[in-house]
Specification:
The protein is an alpha+beta fold. 39% of the residues lie in helices and 35% in strands.
């Protein structure tokens, strides 16, 4: 195996490990009175599917949320379900440890070839 490939494989695996750690989120039930500007939420309006939004502004009766590049004003009484996303430390640590062990096994296997 050439030297240039040997250093690219661990670099690729390290990038994958970082992605595993960044994407471990645990949904928790939110309270409709405690929206925080700049936080990510999943909301359901009526019978529609859940939508991931970022809260830009909060008033007593409305929310200004951003979905993608579009800002939308949502009436609070139209929201039927709220989920706040927060990082799950246990899932992140588990993912990084298991990914690291798999990376070591892969690099060890490739070094024998």
């Amino acid at each position: 195996m050439s030297t240039s490939i040997r250093w690219k494989i661990p670099l690729f695996i390290s990038i994958l490990l970082l992605q595993i750690g960044c994407n471990a989120y645990k949904p928790t039930q939110g309270n409709s009175n405690n929206f925080v500007v700049g936080q990510k939420y999943e909301i359901r309006i009526g019978d529609r599917p859940m939508e991931r939004v970022i809260v830009n502004d909060v008033t007593d009766s409305t929310l200004v949320v951003r979905k993608g590049r579009t800002e939308v004003i949502v009436q609070r009484d139209m929201i039927t379900e709220i989920k706040h996303r927060k990082v799950s430390t246990g899932n992140t640590v588990f993912g990084v440890v298991v990914g690291g062990l798999l990376a070591l096994v892969l690099v060890g296997t490739l070094s024998w070839l």
